[in-house]
Design a protein that fits this description.
This protein is of the alpha/beta class and 373 residues long. It has a single domain, classed as Rossmann fold (3-Layer(aba) Sandwich), CATH 3.40.50. It contains 15 helices and eleven strands. The strands form two sheets. A nine-stranded mixed β-sheet has the order 1-4-3-2-5-8-9-10-11, with helices on both faces. Strands 6-7 form a two-stranded antiparallel ribbon. The radius of gyration is 21 Å and the shape is globular. One of its GO terms (molecular function) is oxidoreductase activity.
Length: 373
């Protein structure tokens, strides 16, 4: 069956098969699902700076004129946006970039958590170059609001770190901790049989995972690309990924095709994800040759790696890379990791500060350049 399934993934077979539900956008959840996206009020604030007057807020042109006359803090040499910046790896990326003199816009869906994170960083590390702006990467208005804010205040963006993500499964966390799985077993992918009793991959959680980890990343990147193109110091895009799932893809035909970036674009990626969701819904993941260890998460990071290479080829003047931070102890892996967030952030920071002649379209395993595709 595996050989037959592999044969079905030819370069001409990437259409959504009849009878399968197409991939649903964040605003169209599965009718039986529990995924609900909350729209959070848009908010932006600048730490240790006066709030702009109402007159300034009412005119984007005047915003830009005011920005030209601001001091070096408002017109920074390098400006970065970090998604999912209020905790874990994202929080540490913000701290470490700010310590390198980069002005950082820390973003988070939750306004209070984002503001608290900025205040904590400023207090603990004596930093004044971190800004908070609310961002829900799945919300059109929220993405547009951030882009308008950056355009009116700074007119450019130098660094984008796409860190926001979700695990994509329903978990019995107490049961998972009781299993006390060796980290080496996690990293080898051999924990798949051990976790079946405590981790469940549902269709709705898979949709949420793919929306957040891939589509949300893609949409915020597209929203900020015009500003990244205005960078005078050479723009950088860093996409947080995981272990190279595509190298362990059971489907050999698909695994070989994933190595060839020239045959891929966003439409073909979407068709592949539709195919994956259809097989998940029909309980034929193993038969069709998809990953079975955290399947939606694995697929989301597989396409993040692929999208990174597509972007790098499309924008050769930028340095665009994906970074696996290591098995970091954060909420996304239910605090089973063995690396502290401070260490896990180093790879993303290194990729964000690459020189103009640095690598692009590459995979970093923490701070080291990984295996080529």
């Amino acid at each position: 069956m595996a050989a037959a399934a592999a044969a079905s993934y030819s370069s001409t077979s990437w259409r959504v098969r009849p009878g399968l539900s197409p991939f649903r956008s964040p605003l169209q959840p599965h009718p039986h699902g529990r995924v609900q996206l909350q729209r959070i009020a848009i908010f932006a604030t600048r730490i240790r700076m006066a709030t702009p007057s109402a007159a300034m807020q009412s005119s984007s042109t005047r915003h830009r004129l005011e920005a030209v006359n601001h001091d070096h803090e408002t017109m920074p040499e390098r400006l970065a946006v970090v998604t999912g910046g209020n905790r874990g790896i994202g929080l540490e990326v913000c701290r470490q970039l700010a310590l390198q003199g980069v002005t950082v816009i820390l973003t988070a869906r939750d306004e209070k958590r984002g503001k608290d994170a900025v205040e904590s960083l400023c207090h603990e590390s004596n930093l004044s170059n971190i800004i908070f702006h609310q961002l829900d990467i799945l919300d059109d208005n929220s993405r547009a609001s951030l882009a308008r804010y950056i355009d009116s205040r700074f007119g450019k963006l130098d660094i984008l770190v796409n860190n926001a993500g979700v695990g994509g499964v329903a978990v019995d966390q107490d049961g998972l901790r009781a299993l006390n799985i060796d980290p080496r077993v996690w990293l080898s992918g051999k924990a798949v049989n051990l976790i079946q009793s405590v981790i469940v991959q549902t269709y709705d959680e898979a949709v949420k995972c793919l929306n957040t980890n891939y589509y949300g990343l893609k949409w915020i990147t597209e929203a900020l690309l015009p500003l990244l193109k205005q960078s005078s110091s050479g723009s950088r895009i860093v996409n947080t990924t995981s272990l190279r799932s595509e190298l362990k893809m059971p489907n050999e035909k698909l695994r070989d095709e994933l190595r060839n970036v020239d045959i891929w674009d966003e439409a073909r990626i979407e068709a592949m994800l539709n195919e994956f969701l259809g097989d998940l819904k029909n309980e034929r993941l193993e038969e069709a040759g998809w990953p079975t260890m955290l399947p939606a998460y694995s697929m989301s990071k597989t396409v993040v790696n692929l999208y990174t290479r597509i972007l790098a080829k499309r924008h050769p003047g930028m340095r665009i890379n994906c970074v696996h931070p290591g098995f970091v102890n954060t909420e996304i892996n239910w605090n089973t990791g063995i690396i502290p967030p401070e260490e896990g952030a180093r790879g993303a920071v290194k990729a964000a500060l690459l020189p103009q002649d640095g690598p692009t379209g590459c995979y970093f395993d923490q701070t080291e350049l990984g295996e080529a595709w």
